Amino acid sequence: MTVNADPAELAKFSELAHRWWDPESEFRPLHEINPLRLEWIQGMAPLAGLRVADVGCGGGILADSMARKGAQVVGIDLSTKALKVAMLHALEAGTPNVEYREVSAEALAAEQPGSFDVVTCMEMLEHVPDPASVVRACADMVKPGGWVFFSTINRNPKAFLFAIVGAEYVLNMLPRGTHEYLKFIRPSELAAHCRAAGLAQQQVRGLEYNPLTRRYSLSSDPSVNYLVATRKT
Fold first, then answer.
1. What are the backbone angles phi and psi of residue 198, rounded to the nearest 5°?
2. Region label for 85, one of left (φ > 0), alpha (ψ between -120 and 50) or beta (otherwise)
């Protein structure tokens, strides 16, 4: 199986892996949005007792928080360094019910089809060569009626201005080169990928940042960052 990953993207995040759990590092935005996305997921799929796959888990920020809500979590990624950081953090923090594996979404779907109650794939689709393949894999690994949650970045002039120029060059919230505009995904494109994979869209929310208050919030505007909740039909 050809691995659906960009070596340059893996190298980029591997270099920063040791900083995943530093809330003042390049990963500060992920730490700040995590309570929002966790509450959003919990609102539709209460996690206690559920089996969850976190695709593209990185250093485990979301996976760790879902495990603390009582889910049995498998976090997967193709960055060896990020996974080692995730494992070390789980060990040090005593996080229960979480394991990490270096495996692709497609490989896990082939190995364990229809075996998860919830699948999350957050801030990951815009970093892979073939996002449709990841969407299919997420659909394949979730049970019928199960939930699949995505978050990514819209592709339009406003998103370029806010997510790249603003976040990477003006506010220095992210390292320069974190995102590539042409890899951004319009909501209509993600919706088409989901329909083709047998996932029915349930909700779309925008994620906005106020530079004055330095706070994130969920909104009805998906023009830059957005989250999509789907269920397997």
1. 85, 25
2. alpha
Q: Is position 1 annotated in a ligand binding site?
A: no
What pLDDT is stored for residue 102 in this prediction?
Answer: 97
Q: Domains in the chain and their CATH numbers?
A: 7-232 (3.40.50.150)
Cα separation, 225 vs 155, in Å, equals 10
231 is in an annotated binding site: no
What is the bridge-based pairing of β-strands 199-210 and 225-232?
antiparallel
Look-up: residue for tokens 């929310």?
A: 205
DSSP state, residue 223? S
Which residue stretches of the chain have pLDDT < 50?
none
Rounded to two decimals, the pTM is 0.94
The Cα 170–Cα 150 span in angstroms is: 27
Sequence-separated (6 or more) residues with CB below 8 Å from residue 172: none
Whether 124 has a binding-site annotation, put simply, is: no
Helices (H), the chain: 7-15, 28-44, 61-67, 80-93, 105-111, 131-141, 157-159, 187-196
Q: Which of 60, 67, 98 is nearest to 82 (CA)?
A: 60
Q: Is 141 annotated as a binding residue?
A: no
